[in-house]
Design a protein that fits this description.
Length: about 270
């Protein structure tokens, strides 16, 4: 097992910070020499800490001071795909207490009997998923604000026309969020590292409950479904409205043709 204190220092308190940096991070280009574990990818970082990096754009830093954190994040700049203008982040602390149970205190402090790479990975899985959910929660709140006038128009039968292209773009964003949550992050599935270790499994369950991973993911699903139904309904109304206009144009053209025919039939001379 890797020594969690490579510099030989004795530590029982570790700062932990999670950030959602981008839509994706290119893990293949990370420094292989610093890798200590995979699934999730874990690197040595700073003087005595770790960085756990996720392909869905999150990074969790354990045991780094602020200067080390800035240097590590700067080293990722060229690996970020579609970086976020606003970075969702969460910060807490790990306390190593060999005599006590592994738990999460009321203030969010994570208490562990020991700090090794597998436990760092389990903590990172929970925090990484939490900041991803936080990122999408903020985005969906903005989406609800954009769609509120449409919903009000549907209720009052005053059709404001945002345009089919914009509606299709919003629908695409909804589908992308669903794909990200279910496909890449798999936020409601237990991490692979917990499958064969009961202690790690119990630790992840506690962390999942503390950060409300499952409840937040299900709430996002409900919001996504509501947004999708609203957009689909309005898009259907726009299409029906256009179909009706086309039918009226056809009727008008037929009427004009009839009038011209009658004029030709009955015009003097």
């Amino acid at each position: 097992m890797d020594d969690p204190r490579p510099d030989g220092a004795s530590r029982d308190r570790w700062r932990v910070r999670a950030l959602q940096l981008a839509e994706r991070i290119d893990l293949r280009r990370l420094d292989a020499a610093r890798r200590v574990a995979h699934a999730p990818l874990t690197l040595r970082a700073g003087g005595a800490g770790w960085a756990v990096v996720f392909r869905w754009g999150a990074v969790v830093l354990v045991g780094l001071d602020e200067a080390e954190e800035r240097r590590f994040l700067a080293s990722l700049d060229d690996l970020l795909e579609r970086p976020h203008a606003r970075r969702e982040d969460e910060e807490t602390e790990i306390v190593v207490d060999p005599s006590g149970p592994e738990r999460v205190d009321a203030d969010g402090t994570i208490r562990l009997r020991s700090l090794d790479v597998p436990r760092v990975q389990v903590v990172a899985e929970a925090l990484g998923r939490s900041v991803l959910l936080g990122h999408f929660e903020a985005n969906l709140a903005a989406a609800f604000e954009r769609l509120e006038p449409i919903a009000e128009g549907l209720g009052r039968r005053r059709w404001r026309r945002p345009g089919t292209r914009r509606l299709l773009r919003e629908i695409g964003d909804v589908l992308r969020v669903q794909q990200e949550l279910v496909g890449r992050a798999e936020v409601e599935d237990k991490p692979e590292i917990t499958w064969d270790d009961a202690a790690l499994d119990r630790l992840y369950v506690r962390l999942e409950d503390e950060f409300e991973i499952g409840d937040r993911a299900r709430a996002l699903d409900r919001k996504l479904e509501l947004i999708y139904r609203t957009l689909e309904t309005y898009l259907g109304i726009l299409q029906d409205d256009r179909s009706l206009r086309v039918e009226w144009y056809i009727v008008l053209l037929i009427g004009v043709e009839i009038l011209l025919t009658l004029y030709e039939m009955f015009r003097p001379g």
